[in-house]
Design a protein that fits this description.
The chain is of the alpha/beta class and 417 residues long. The strands form four sheets. A seven-stranded mixed sheet has the order 2-10-9-8-5-3-4, sandwiched between helices. Strands 1-12 form a two-stranded parallel ribbon. Strands 6-7 form a two-stranded antiparallel ribbon. The protein has two domains: 24-282, 3-Layer(aba) Sandwich (Aspartate Aminotransferase, domain 2), CATH 3.40.640; 286-416, Aspartate Aminotransferase, domain 1 (Alpha-Beta Complex), CATH 3.90.1150. The chain is built from 13 helices and 13 strands. Helix 9 packs across helix 10. It binds pyridoxal-5'-phosphate. Pyridoxal-5'-phosphate binds at residues 18, 70-72, 97, 143, 146-147, 172, 174-175, 195, 204.
């Protein structure tokens, strides 16, 4: 007999910077029966998943599929497949996840050229252009939304700029896709990766990716199919062998193509979940989802300000789905987070690096980009802050947020008339 109890995690409202509570429909999809990976029913589902994610990424890219890994695996797949030793990669860093890109580039023996923006700000595209001109990199790699700072980098002009200087563009949209506008094709983004556990309303463990023809050409140059599955027509590419087998996008393209070339065993349950995330998002409408995130994020921000708290960062460039807020000096940030979790079952985020202990990050994303989640969080936070001796304006947070939701609802109704 096992001494271990059945799995019964505590009920939580996850209002941090991700993961969030998965949509129950996604969890339900993930409990459906397994089938073999070459079963026509399965390859059919893989094809549907590709089609759905084309809508999510706003792309016609044939190569739009899943990496069976957390979002970081999607980043690694993109970078290790593109970067050959010595390649120059320009990385505009405006938070922790920009540093992560640089770290992965270095592990690929690429030359990481970082430019820095103060945490809490975004880059002016002209700054990126100056660096592109100066360094002439093979690749420009940057985040759209860096959850560590809550800042969303405008990308609409970045792809065209990179083309002007003959660089490829990689975007980490893990934290932003589905909750902030992203148009892979219109913005000329060559390769974009994401994760499920933020605005896509799923659990972590699958990384949707899209890559366009320019990225495909660069990767196919490096195509070396592994021994044991290579056929007589699999002529090795001219470029250096991709240094990871698991994250080799050339082999993964074969795997997701009609060839169904064997690679790893598909993570079927994650595929079911990823497909359901995209199905729900596409049914709502990607633009409608972006609007829902913006309304919930703004309502939360208004509620926090109404309480007398100070927001962190350039609000004109804040991600729709995460708000940074300064910890009032009279309380201990971690004590407030602990009371919220223990007494109310609500999780909010701490912060990293230079912001550690200074701000909390509160997310409104995916399944939790909802009025009830925002209002419950504000009410609980007010109560915990007062109990911890914070000097805030009692009774002001929830009404400010509610007023914002009402105004947004009225504007949406008017627009629909
Ligand atoms: C912008 C960004 N990139 C990458 C990651 C890493 O994702 P994962 O933890 O799923 O590997 C995160 C996670 O928070 C993120 O916010």
């Amino acid at each position: 007999m096992s001494d271990f109890a059945d799995l019964n995690p505590p009920a939580r409202l996850l209002m941090g910077p991700g993961p969030i509570n998965a949509d129950p429909r996604v969890l339900r999809a993930m409990s459906t029966p397994l089938i073999g990976q070459f079963d026509p029913a399965m390859t059919g589902l893989m094809g549907e998943t590709m089609a759905l994610y084309r809508e999510v990424f706003k792309t016609a890219n044939r190569w739009t599929f899943l990496i069976d890994a957390t979002a970081r695996g999607g980043i690694e797949a993109a970078l290790v497949s593109l970067i050959e030793p010595g390649d120059k990669v320009l990385i505009p860093v405006f938070g922790r996840f920009g540093h992560l890109l640089a770290e992965i580039v270095r592990r690929c023996d690429g030359e990481a050229i970082e430019i820095q923006a103060e945490w809490g700000t975004a880059f002016d595209p002209s700054t990126i252009e100056v660096a592109l001109k100066k360094h002439q990199p093979k690749l420009l790699a940057l985040c759209q939304g860096d959850t560590s700072t809550t800042i969303c980098q405008p990308l609409a002009d970045i792809g065209a700029l990179a083309r002007k200087y003959d660089a490829l563009v990689y975007v980490d949209a893990t934290a932003s896709l589905g909750g902030n506008d992203l148009r892979a094709d219109d913005w000329h983004l060559d390769i974009v990766t994401a994760g499920l556990q933020k605005c896509l309303a799923g659990p972590s463990g699958s990384a949707p990716l899209t890559l366009g023809p320019r990225a495909e050409a660069a990767i196919q140059r490096r195509r070396h199919v592994e021994q044991g599955i290579a056929g007589p027509n699999d002529v090795p590419g001219q470029g250096a062998r991709i240094r990871s087998n698991y994250f080799d996008l050339a082999m993964l393209m074969d795997y997701w193509s009609e060839k169904r070339l064997n690679h790893h065993t598909e993570a079927t349950t994650m595929l079911y979940g990823a497909r359901e995330c995209a199905r729900i998002l596409v049914a709502e409408g990607v633009d409608a989802s972006v609007r829902r995130h913006r309304v919930a994020g703004d309502a939360l921000a208004k509620g926090l300000v109404g309480m007398g708290l100070k927001l962190f960062g350039d609000q004109a460039h804040r991600m729709a789905n995460v708000v940074g807020v300064y910890v009032p000096p009279e309380v201990v940030g971690d004590a407030v987070r602990r009371d919220l979790l223990v007494d109310f079952g609500i999780e909010i985020g701490t912060s990293f690096g230079p912001l550690h202990g200074k701000i909390w990050r509160i997310g409104t994303m995916g399944y939790n980009a909802r009025k009830d989640c925002v209002l419950t969080t504000l009410a609980a936070l007010e109560s915990v802050l007062l109990a911890n001796g914070a000097k805030i304006a009692a009774g002001q947070g929830v009404p400010a947020a509610l007023a914002h939701f009402r105004t947004a609802d009225a504007a949406a109704r008017k627009a629909a008339e």
